[in-house]
Amino acid sequence: MTHSRPTIRELLDDNGLAPRRDLGQNFVTDPNTVRRIADLARVGPGDRVVEIGAGLGSLTLALAETGAEVTAVEVDSGVVPLLTEIVAECGNVTVVEADAMATDWFELLDPEVDGGWTLVANLPYNVGTPLVCDILDEVPHVQRILVMVQREVAERFAAAPRTSAYGAISVKAAFWGSARIVGHVPAAVFFPKPNVESALVEITRRTPPDIDPGPMFELVKKGFGQRRKMLRKSLAGIVTAEQFVAADVAETARPEELDVDAWVRLSSVVGPLPSSG
User: Fold this and answer.
1) Is 92 marked as a binding-site residue?
2) Which residues does the UniProt record annotate as the domain Ribosomal RNA adenine methylase transferase N-terminal (predicted)?
3) For 181-194, what is each residue's pLDDT tens digit?
4) Cα(173)–Cα(134) distance, integer angstroms
5) Is 33 helix (H, G, I), strand (E, B) or coil?
6) Domain holding 250: CATH number?
7) Binding site annotation covers 26?
8) Residue 53, annotated ligand binder?
Protein backbone atom coordinates (compact mmCIF):
# COMPACT_ATOMS: atom_id res chain seq x y z
CA MET A 1 0.00 0.00 0.00
CA THR A 2 1.18 3.52 -0.82
CA HIS A 3 -0.24 6.68 0.63
CA SER A 4 -2.35 9.26 -1.17
CA ARG A 5 -2.14 12.87 -0.12
CA PRO A 6 -5.15 12.68 2.29
CA THR A 7 -3.56 9.66 3.98
CA ILE A 8 -0.28 11.50 4.48
CA ARG A 9 -2.10 14.43 6.03
CA GLU A 10 -4.20 12.11 8.18
CA LEU A 11 -1.13 10.22 9.38
CA LEU A 12 0.50 13.46 10.42
CA ASP A 13 -2.61 14.90 12.03
CA ASP A 14 -3.61 11.70 13.83
CA ASN A 15 -0.15 11.39 15.34
CA GLY A 16 0.36 15.04 16.24
CA LEU A 17 3.11 15.44 13.66
CA ALA A 18 3.96 18.05 11.06
CA PRO A 19 6.64 18.29 8.36
CA ARG A 20 9.82 19.62 9.97
CA ARG A 21 11.39 22.51 8.12
CA ASP A 22 14.69 22.04 9.96
CA LEU A 23 14.96 18.55 8.44
CA GLY A 24 13.77 19.66 5.03
CA GLN A 25 10.86 17.23 5.10
CA ASN A 26 8.69 17.09 1.98
CA PHE A 27 6.70 13.86 1.89
CA VAL A 28 5.88 12.23 -1.47
CA THR A 29 2.14 11.78 -1.65
CA ASP A 30 1.63 10.34 -5.14
CA PRO A 31 1.60 6.51 -5.40
CA ASN A 32 2.57 6.59 -9.07
CA THR A 33 5.69 8.62 -8.27
CA VAL A 34 7.01 6.21 -5.66
CA ARG A 35 6.28 3.22 -7.91
CA ARG A 36 8.14 4.95 -10.71
CA ILE A 37 11.15 5.52 -8.47
CA ALA A 38 11.10 1.88 -7.34
CA ASP A 39 10.98 0.78 -10.99
CA LEU A 40 13.91 3.04 -11.87
CA ALA A 41 15.88 1.56 -8.98
CA ARG A 42 15.92 -1.78 -10.87
CA VAL A 43 16.07 -3.87 -7.71
CA GLY A 44 14.40 -7.11 -6.77
CA PRO A 45 14.68 -10.22 -4.62
CA GLY A 46 18.23 -10.74 -3.39
CA ASP A 47 19.18 -7.07 -3.75
CA ARG A 48 20.03 -4.81 -0.82
CA VAL A 49 18.64 -1.27 -0.72
CA VAL A 50 19.27 1.54 1.72
CA GLU A 51 16.72 4.35 1.80
CA ILE A 52 17.69 7.60 3.47
CA GLY A 53 14.95 9.79 4.88
CA ALA A 54 12.24 7.14 4.77
CA GLY A 55 9.72 9.50 6.38
CA LEU A 56 6.22 8.02 6.39
CA GLY A 57 7.19 5.05 4.27
CA SER A 58 5.62 5.76 0.88
CA LEU A 59 8.81 4.99 -1.04
CA THR A 60 9.81 2.34 1.52
CA LEU A 61 6.68 0.32 0.78
CA ALA A 62 7.17 0.64 -2.96
CA LEU A 63 10.74 -0.61 -2.61
CA ALA A 64 9.60 -3.45 -0.36
CA GLU A 65 7.13 -4.55 -3.04
CA THR A 66 10.09 -5.25 -5.37
CA GLY A 67 11.21 -8.03 -3.01
CA ALA A 68 14.52 -6.34 -2.20
CA GLU A 69 15.83 -6.20 1.38
CA VAL A 70 15.36 -2.58 2.49
CA THR A 71 17.18 -0.73 5.25
CA ALA A 72 15.11 2.40 5.91
CA VAL A 73 17.04 5.17 7.65
CA GLU A 74 15.15 8.03 9.34
CA VAL A 75 16.56 10.74 11.60
CA ASP A 76 13.25 12.12 12.94
CA SER A 77 12.61 10.36 16.26
CA GLY A 78 8.99 11.51 16.15
CA VAL A 79 8.39 9.76 12.83
CA VAL A 80 10.34 6.54 13.46
CA PRO A 81 7.65 4.78 15.57
CA LEU A 82 5.00 5.53 12.96
CA LEU A 83 7.29 4.43 10.12
CA THR A 84 7.99 1.20 12.00
CA GLU A 85 4.25 0.61 12.36
CA ILE A 86 3.60 1.34 8.68
CA VAL A 87 6.15 -1.21 7.46
CA ALA A 88 5.46 -3.76 10.22
CA GLU A 89 3.81 -6.23 7.87
CA CYS A 90 6.77 -6.17 5.48
CA GLY A 91 9.18 -8.96 6.18
CA ASN A 92 11.96 -7.32 4.20
CA VAL A 93 12.25 -3.84 5.80
CA THR A 94 14.52 -2.85 8.68
CA VAL A 95 13.98 0.62 10.17
CA VAL A 96 17.04 2.37 11.59
CA GLU A 97 16.90 5.66 13.47
CA ALA A 98 20.08 7.47 12.45
CA ASP A 99 21.46 10.69 11.01
CA ALA A 100 22.77 9.80 7.56
CA MET A 101 25.22 12.70 7.73
CA ALA A 102 26.90 11.25 10.82
CA THR A 103 26.40 7.49 10.62
CA ASP A 104 29.06 4.79 10.36
CA TRP A 105 28.22 3.35 6.96
CA PHE A 106 30.44 0.31 7.41
CA GLU A 107 28.54 -0.55 10.57
CA LEU A 108 25.12 0.18 9.09
CA LEU A 109 25.62 -1.56 5.73
CA ASP A 110 27.46 -4.87 5.46
CA PRO A 111 30.35 -4.17 3.03
CA GLU A 112 30.60 -7.86 2.13
CA VAL A 113 27.11 -8.12 0.61
CA ASP A 114 27.23 -9.71 -2.85
CA GLY A 115 26.55 -7.11 -5.49
CA GLY A 116 26.81 -4.24 -3.06
CA TRP A 117 24.03 -1.85 -2.06
CA THR A 118 21.72 0.46 -3.96
CA LEU A 119 20.92 3.79 -2.36
CA VAL A 120 17.44 5.12 -3.12
CA ALA A 121 16.17 8.29 -1.50
CA ASN A 122 14.09 11.42 -1.61
CA LEU A 123 16.78 13.65 -0.12
CA PRO A 124 16.18 16.94 1.68
CA TYR A 125 17.52 19.72 -0.50
CA ASN A 126 19.91 20.99 2.15
CA VAL A 127 21.81 17.69 2.43
CA GLY A 128 21.56 16.25 -1.08
CA THR A 129 24.94 17.36 -2.39
CA PRO A 130 27.13 16.69 0.68
CA LEU A 131 25.48 13.35 1.39
CA VAL A 132 25.89 11.99 -2.14
CA CYS A 133 29.48 13.26 -2.23
CA ASP A 134 30.24 11.55 1.09
CA ILE A 135 28.75 8.28 -0.17
CA LEU A 136 30.81 8.45 -3.35
CA ASP A 137 34.01 9.23 -1.46
CA GLU A 138 33.64 6.97 1.55
CA VAL A 139 31.16 4.12 0.95
CA PRO A 140 32.38 1.99 -1.96
CA HIS A 141 29.92 -0.82 -1.21
CA VAL A 142 27.08 1.49 -2.29
CA GLN A 143 27.34 0.58 -5.96
CA ARG A 144 24.37 2.49 -7.34
CA ILE A 145 22.67 5.70 -6.28
CA LEU A 146 19.19 6.85 -7.30
CA VAL A 147 18.18 10.02 -5.51
CA MET A 148 15.56 12.69 -5.89
CA VAL A 149 17.15 16.09 -5.37
CA GLN A 150 16.65 19.69 -6.42
CA ARG A 151 16.76 19.87 -10.23
CA GLU A 152 19.81 22.14 -10.29
CA VAL A 153 21.70 19.70 -8.05
CA ALA A 154 20.85 16.78 -10.32
CA GLU A 155 22.02 18.78 -13.32
CA ARG A 156 25.36 19.50 -11.64
CA PHE A 157 25.98 15.83 -10.87
CA ALA A 158 25.20 14.80 -14.45
CA ALA A 159 26.69 17.76 -16.32
CA ALA A 160 29.16 17.31 -19.18
CA PRO A 161 32.23 19.51 -19.74
CA ARG A 162 31.68 22.84 -21.47
CA THR A 163 28.18 23.27 -20.04
CA SER A 164 27.06 25.88 -17.52
CA ALA A 165 26.15 23.28 -14.88
CA TYR A 166 29.55 21.55 -15.05
CA GLY A 167 31.66 22.03 -11.95
CA ALA A 168 33.62 20.34 -9.20
CA ILE A 169 30.62 18.16 -8.27
CA SER A 170 30.38 16.94 -11.87
CA VAL A 171 34.06 15.95 -11.85
CA LYS A 172 33.61 14.05 -8.58
CA ALA A 173 30.64 12.12 -9.95
CA ALA A 174 32.51 11.32 -13.18
CA PHE A 175 35.58 10.17 -11.22
CA TRP A 176 33.59 7.61 -9.26
CA GLY A 177 30.99 6.62 -11.82
CA SER A 178 28.52 7.56 -14.50
CA ALA A 179 25.74 10.04 -13.69
CA ARG A 180 22.56 10.75 -15.61
CA ILE A 181 19.20 12.34 -15.00
CA VAL A 182 16.49 9.69 -15.34
CA GLY A 183 13.38 11.72 -14.59
CA HIS A 184 11.78 14.90 -13.32
CA VAL A 185 9.29 15.17 -10.46
CA PRO A 186 6.72 17.97 -10.18
CA ALA A 187 6.37 19.90 -6.95
CA ALA A 188 2.68 18.97 -6.78
CA VAL A 189 3.44 15.41 -5.60
CA PHE A 190 4.96 16.63 -2.32
CA PHE A 191 3.47 17.72 0.98
CA PRO A 192 4.29 20.40 1.78
CA LYS A 193 4.77 21.58 -1.78
CA PRO A 194 8.34 22.87 -2.27
CA ASN A 195 9.21 26.01 -4.18
CA VAL A 196 11.74 24.23 -6.38
CA GLU A 197 11.64 21.52 -9.02
CA SER A 198 13.04 18.06 -8.37
CA ALA A 199 14.82 15.54 -10.54
CA LEU A 200 15.99 11.96 -10.24
CA VAL A 201 19.69 11.40 -10.78
CA GLU A 202 21.29 7.98 -11.08
CA ILE A 203 24.99 7.40 -10.40
CA THR A 204 26.48 4.00 -11.18
CA ARG A 205 29.95 3.29 -9.85
CA ARG A 206 32.87 2.32 -12.05
CA THR A 207 36.44 1.34 -11.20
CA PRO A 208 37.98 4.78 -10.57
CA PRO A 209 41.28 5.97 -12.03
CA ASP A 210 44.37 4.72 -10.18
CA ILE A 211 45.14 7.96 -8.38
CA ASP A 212 44.69 9.40 -4.89
CA PRO A 213 41.38 11.27 -5.25
CA GLY A 214 41.97 13.67 -2.35
CA PRO A 215 44.65 15.85 -3.96
CA MET A 216 42.83 15.74 -7.29
CA PHE A 217 39.58 16.97 -5.79
CA GLU A 218 41.50 19.76 -4.03
CA LEU A 219 43.02 20.75 -7.36
CA VAL A 220 39.60 20.68 -9.02
CA LYS A 221 38.16 22.81 -6.21
CA LYS A 222 40.95 25.36 -6.66
CA GLY A 223 40.38 25.49 -10.39
CA PHE A 224 36.63 25.97 -10.17
CA GLY A 225 37.08 28.54 -7.40
CA GLN A 226 37.77 30.98 -10.23
CA ARG A 227 35.96 29.25 -13.03
CA ARG A 228 35.93 32.25 -15.39
CA LYS A 229 39.72 32.49 -15.36
CA MET A 230 42.19 30.48 -17.38
CA LEU A 231 43.82 27.66 -15.47
CA ARG A 232 47.21 29.36 -15.53
CA LYS A 233 45.59 32.10 -13.42
CA SER A 234 43.31 30.06 -11.15
CA LEU A 235 46.08 27.51 -10.51
CA ALA A 236 48.97 29.99 -10.40
CA GLY A 237 51.56 28.92 -7.86
CA ILE A 238 50.18 25.37 -7.90
CA VAL A 239 50.72 24.14 -11.47
CA THR A 240 53.74 25.15 -13.52
CA ALA A 241 53.83 25.69 -17.26
CA GLU A 242 55.91 22.53 -17.59
CA GLN A 243 53.34 20.51 -15.66
CA PHE A 244 50.54 21.73 -17.92
CA VAL A 245 52.57 20.50 -20.89
CA ALA A 246 53.36 17.16 -19.21
CA ALA A 247 49.66 16.62 -18.52
CA ASP A 248 48.67 17.62 -22.06
CA VAL A 249 46.37 20.30 -20.65
CA ALA A 250 46.29 23.79 -22.17
CA GLU A 251 47.10 26.39 -19.53
CA THR A 252 44.77 28.76 -21.39
CA ALA A 253 41.81 26.41 -20.83
CA ARG A 254 39.12 27.18 -18.30
CA PRO A 255 38.18 24.62 -15.67
CA GLU A 256 34.84 23.70 -17.25
CA GLU A 257 36.66 22.63 -20.43
CA LEU A 258 38.49 19.75 -18.70
CA ASP A 259 36.89 16.32 -18.47
CA VAL A 260 37.71 14.02 -15.58
CA ASP A 261 40.55 12.34 -17.48
CA ALA A 262 42.27 15.69 -17.99
CA TRP A 263 41.95 16.48 -14.28
CA VAL A 264 43.42 13.07 -13.48
CA ARG A 265 46.41 13.71 -15.75
CA LEU A 266 46.97 17.14 -14.27
CA SER A 267 46.77 15.89 -10.71
CA SER A 268 49.13 13.02 -11.51
CA VAL A 269 51.92 15.38 -12.48
CA VAL A 270 51.21 17.94 -9.74
CA GLY A 271 50.88 15.53 -6.82
CA PRO A 272 49.68 16.62 -3.35
CA LEU A 273 49.00 20.32 -3.00
CA PRO A 274 51.10 22.29 -0.50
CA SER A 275 49.51 22.73 2.92
CA SER A 276 47.68 26.03 3.37
CA GLY A 277 48.23 25.88 7.13
Assistant:
1) no
2) 33-207
3) 999 998 888 776 77
4) 11
5) helix
6) 1.10.8.100
7) yes
8) yes
